[in-house]
Amino acid sequence: MDNSYEYYNEIAKGYDELHKEEQLSKFRVINNTISIKSSTKILDVGCGTCLSYNFFTCDWKGIEPAKKMIQKNPNSKKLFEEKRVFVLPAESIKKLFNENEFDVIICVSTAHHFTNLEIVIKQMKKICKNNGDIVFSLLKTTNNCEKIKSQIKNNLKVKNTVDEGKDIILFCKNAL
Asked: How far apart are alpha carbons 140 and 14 in whole angstroms?
């Protein structure tokens, strides 16, 4: 991941005021498009202030390189104690999780920060169950949005694409 985590540590205090509704809207689209049950094991890559933890009622885990973002969540102490959230860049997810551990992996508006998207996707494919869901929300205004979309399509089977305002959401299946 690039050094944008420093920027997010700085803006953590006001992040939810700026972006909460927009993020919740994307979570609603995800929830309405794929089946997330209480038994679903989900990983949020770039979980920010852990809004998805508060949104999805399932077996949730998250990673985020900007520790102050995580600490904005009122449940952050509990999340750290229960080993549900980790301060870690996306490029290191394979270090923490087992193969075939997750039913769903979401990456909401963070892929443009990865230093090596192909490595992240390869690691996601390993820790996501076969035929599991990997969902990317991409900011359309990001300079490299088309390149990111192309990399995702070259490495995963895109089943559905949803235009959601400022974002495009790619719903992929992990087919080994």
From this structure: 23
Per residue in 73-125, pLDDT (tens digit) is 899 999 999 999 999 999 999 889 999 999 999 999 889 888 899 999 999 99
Cβ proximity of 52 and 26 under 8 Å: no
Say whether domain 4-173 belongs to CATH 3.65.10.10.
no
- pTM here is 0.91
**What would the pLDDT profile of 1-19 be if each residue is shown by its tens digit?**
455 656 554 655 655 566 6
Order across the sheet with 128-139: list the strands: 85-86, 59-63, 41-45, 102-108, 128-139, 167-173, 157-164
Instruction: Mean pLDDT check: name the lowest of 15-29, 49-63, 78-92, 142-156.
Output: 15-29
The identity of residue 23, as a single letter, is: Q
How far CA 26 is from CA of 150, 164, 175, in Å, comes to 21, 7, 24
How many Cβ atoms are within 10 Å of 49's Cβ, its own excluded? 25
Where do the structural domains in the chain lie, given as residue ranges? 4-173
Strands (E), 34-115: 41-45, 59-63, 85-86, 102-108
DSSP string, 25-47: HHHHHHHHHS---TT-EEEEET-
